[in-house]
Amino acid sequence: MMNKPTKPVAGAAVEGGERVPVLSLQNVFRSYAEGDGELEILKGANLNLYEGEMVALVAPSGAGKSTLMHLAGLLERPQGGEVIIAGKECSTLNDDARTAIRRTGVGFVYQFHQLLPEFTALENIALPQMICGLKRADAEDRARQLLSYMRLAERESHRPAELSGGEQQRVAIARAVANAPRVLLADEPTGNLDPKTSQYVFEALTALVRASGVAALLATHNMELARQMDRRITLRNGKVIELP
Ligand code: ADP
Fold first, then answer.
1. Fewest CB within 10 A of the end CB: N or C in the chain?
2. pLDDT tens for residues 33-48?
């Protein structure tokens, strides 16, 4: 089905009997300059994300969800603390090393699909793999597998404008996991869809997470979806808090 070993349930790499997180944020600090002062967003935030697990990040607007995602996805650097992906501390690496880890180790899904309009569904999924050095034929093979897994085999030659909102988002999810990342970060991935389509896209995403073992963090305002995930977290006073 996919090129990664399949794991049916949320599992985790085990080292000396301990679960080892795929993504770990440790005592992370991030603030932004605001006038004369500092706007402190994260103040010693901790988060562990394990293989094959789906975690909902639910917090009001402005709480720092995007900031947390950007730090986890190596798009920004923390001012303090560590961001560890697959055992590697990334916050002190140089930009080239961070870009290399981001390209293959992290997948992103956004609220708006961000697919390239002039390319087909197949090409949108094949391109990130080719950027990472795969031959076109191999990249397209994997893209076809992923499209088929997302039940989009019939749509491979459609351009984004020729796909429905739900289909576009499923292509975007397939693209995000094209390079078999360890971590998947999704910022309101169904925020733009009606409830029924949201549920369908969410179920496709869940199946993919379970089958690939990727660790997924999803920012969402949709409590219906949040309830279906393994854990729910929020941000309070700059820290990550587990919700019931
Ligand atoms: P959320 O995603 O939860 O809505 P964000 O992480 O986007 O929250 O933002 C948290 C706070 O940090 C907001 O008040 C926002 O205005 C501020 N902020 C985010 N990014 C920047 C930036 N690059 N420069 C200055 N302030 C920022």
1. C
2. 988 899 999 999 999 9
Type of residue found at 169: Q
Polymer length in residues for the chain: 244
Q: Tell me the one-letter amino acid at 53.
A: E
Taking the centre of ligand 1 as the mean of its atom positions, its distance from the CA of residue 44, in whole angstroms, is 17
**pTM to 2 decimal places:** 0.90
Q: Which residues of 90-120 are buried (b: 16+ CB within 10 A; e: fewer)?
A: bbebeeeebeebbebbbbbbbbebebeeeeb
Q: How far apart are CA 131 and CA 36, in angstroms?
A: 42
Q: How far apart are CA 164 and CA 85, in angstroms?
A: 34
Quote the CA–CA distance of 24 and 222 in Å, as a whole number. 25
> 163, 193 in Cβ contact below 8 A?
no
Burial 201-213 (b: 16+ CB within 10 A, else e): bbebbbebbbbbb
Do the bridges between strand 54-57 and strand 18-20 make them parallel or antiparallel, or are there none, so unpaired?
unpaired
